[in-house]
Amino acid sequence: MLMIRFQRIGRTNDPAFRIVVLEKERAAKAGNIVELLGTYNPLSKALTLNEERVKYWISMGAQPTGSIHSLLISKGVITGNKVNVLPKKSPIKKEVVETVPAETVPAS
Question: Domain 2-74's class?
């Protein structure tokens, strides 16, 4: 299955991303991409994108990741609802210690 994903480029503490189409089983860093669709810099919010090719690959069955999906919606390339990519927070569970009454414990 094809995915539309980010491929990280750039130096340490200076992230930049390529938006690429590749097989889901392949690592993004491996370089085995099918097509380069654009770039994204999260620090400057600069986005270059080939919108026609994105729509083409989505019509051919490529699935965008959650981050890409939300980015495409905010830029107006596709329509729909954004996807929450952050994990749900679970409340901190308090440890429950059950005490056994002294009457039920057999004396030795």
Answer: alpha beta
